[in-house]
Amino acid sequence: MSEKDYLKDISEIKNLMNKSSRFISLSGLSGIFAGGYAIVGAIIAYFYIFPETGDYLTLHSWNFKMLLILLLSVLGLSILTAYLLTTIKAKKNKEKIWDATTRRLLLNFMIPLVTGGIYILIKLNSQHYGLTASLMLIFYGLALVNASKYTVGNVKFLGYGQIILGLICAALPGYGFWFWLIGFGIFHIIYGSGMYLQEKKR
Amino acid sequence: MGIIDNINKLFDHRIRLGIMSILMVNENADFNRLKELLDLTDGNLASHVKALEQAKYILVEKSFVGRKPNTRYSTTKLGKTEFKKHIEALEKLIQKK
User: Fold this and answer.
1) B68: which strand partners?
2) Residues 4-63 in B contacting A (C-alpha not used; CB under 8 Å)
């Protein structure tokens, strides 16, 4: 084989690897966006929703309901952005968006995440508010690590980061809000920018 | 000669290389998925899969989904090491020239 054939081999390998586990291509920009939404959400919560010091956040107060709506909006917007960016990318590369890889990835992502979500709700219902941020970080991290088996990217490391942060957060009660901001906001942006630059290089 | 030794004859074919590339980044893939990704006919894919299976580079798992037979493939440890060696050899060959 000549040099040209070897080059063709390598590009064929890269192409097939990307095509069969596409989520590597989604990650960059959607990570940056998700981080941005989380930070905006946190700022809104900090200035408008959190009760004055000394007051408690209880399950039936308006603050709590607002906080829940805010959280769900951040989640919804992040998912929507990721979905739109992937669709655009898939169309450009003439790939199908809903195939075996996507299904497996989503399933493996959802199992720890939904488990965590339900667990947090049960805890909240019995007035255990303290660990919410830590639990969110840990279960989200586990979901990322679990889903990373179906990507070639570095999502795994984002997952490890969130888990470690979640554990530290559990050890330092009272700073949940700040850890949440670092994990969901700053980690996403760092990770997203890294991936974005890597994608640009190719 | 060192580099040439690592060029694996079995991977020196577009389709077999393709099958390995897909299985390297996926835990497993079934026959139809490989066919779809590589754009091949049944017979063509089957013969190349067999070659890789005989070399013990991939694992074949047959089962039933409902009544339909379903065959899933995954890489073995040996297959992964050999594939990595092959890629390294390719990259070195390109850099040398």
Assistant:
1) B65
2) 12, 14, 17-18, 21-22, 24-27, 29-30, 33, 37-38
